[in-house]
Amino acid sequence: MKRGFIGERNVKNSPTSPRTKNVNKRYTIDEALDVFIQSKEAEGLRPRSIENYREHTRHLMRYIDRDPFCIDELTSKLIREYISYLSKDRIAYEEFGNRARESKGLSPYTINLRLRSLKTMCAFWYEEGMLSSNPAEKVKKVKSDEVDEVPGLTDIEVERILNYYDERQFAQWRDKTLCLLLLDTGLRIEEAVSLTIDRINLRYCEINVPPNKAKNRKGREVPVSREVAKRLIKLQDESRLYFGECDEVFMNAYGDPYTAEAFRRRLNRMKKDLDIPRLHPHMFRHTFCRNYILNGGDLFTLQKIVDHADINTTRKYIQMDEEHIRQQHNKYSPIRKYLRNRKN
């Protein structure tokens, strides 16, 4: 891979004047991205996060449609025009042909994800002396009345999904087991598909998530129902019977480790069969968080289980539709106590 290098520069720091930078080299977007990625890889950023930066840069360059393009040509005006294009004219999945949607404009959540990546990269390039100013610094994220996070699945949708699988087929039995695991533990999909048999503790009904698999780099023990734990062990026994010695619980039909992307593709096909508007792995995690609270769990314990560094993130996951709100009100409304007292 071709690597970009940071040119020599003179940096002046003065308590009475702003810091100035002398940029002695122009960097194309590809060169600048290589420098940024190299730095993030050295910091130990996850491969999926690295790929997100690459993907978001590809979206930007598809809009700019000019090669070569140098990062010093980025301006606040250009970035805001790009955001306006994403909001009004961009067609979701346009590059995938048959997946393209008819409506124009991406969701504020998707736009803000791409903007956050661009702001992070621009800040890095400025701090490294590759830009004389940060063009994204004052660009604000898109405001919206919509909820940032996607909702979980309804009880009816969960029933339809679980009933969809034919457990006589290995792949469908495996996928149903994975769905049950996600609904039971709130694991991230990458944490779930990478599960190995040695990390299942049937005695204490726990699953160990080591630091190198956890998003926040902190290992944790996640409670799991005994029924699901036994199903995981049975699945691994089945895999060993077909494919020989292996540590992974989830395998594909060729005896290779199952991947999150393969599961996403299979969910997308199921979504069409069941006519469910949205269906992807993270929705199972949202469903677990919501149902955990509805069933009487507390927010702080939930935060530890799902490995959120900030409890505000946990709160965002707990989205309840009108039916859930009615059920909770009917169950916990304080007026019932007063009405009972009057009857007595």
Verbal overview:
The protein starts with 10 loop residues before the first strand and ends with a helix. By secondary structure, the chain is mainly α. Helix 6 crosses helix 10. The chain is built from 14 helices and five strands. A hairpin with a 2-residue loop joins strand 1 and strand 2. A three-stranded antiparallel beta sheet has the order 3-4-5. The chain has two domains: 102 residues, DNA polymerase, domain 1; 168 residues, Orthogonal Bundle (hpI Integrase, Chain A), CATH 1.10.443. The N terminus is likely disordered.
Tell me the overall shape. Answer: globular
Our measurement of the CA-to-CA distance between the termini, rounded to an integer number of angstroms, reads 80 Å
Rounded to an integer in angstroms, the radius of gyration calculated over CA atoms is 24 Å
Q: How many strand segments?
A: 5
Q: For the record, what CATH class of the largest domain applies?
A: Mainly Alpha
Strand order of the largest sheet: 3-4-5
Structural class: mainly alpha
Mean pLDDT: 84
Spell out the key features of this protein.
344 residues, 3-stranded antiparallel sheet, 2 domains, mainly alpha, 51% helix, DNA polymerase, domain 1, 5 strands, hpI Integrase, Chain A, two-stranded antiparallel ribbon, 14 helices
Task: Show the helix and strand layout.
Layout: E1 11-14, E2 17-21, H1 29-42, H2 47-64, H3 76-88, H4 108-127, H5 155-164, H6 170-185, H7 189-193, E3 200-201, E4 206-209, E5 220-223, H8 226-243, H9 260-274, H10 282-294, H11 299-306, H12 311-317, H13 322-332, H14 335-343
Antiparallel strand pairs: 1-2, 3-4, 4-5
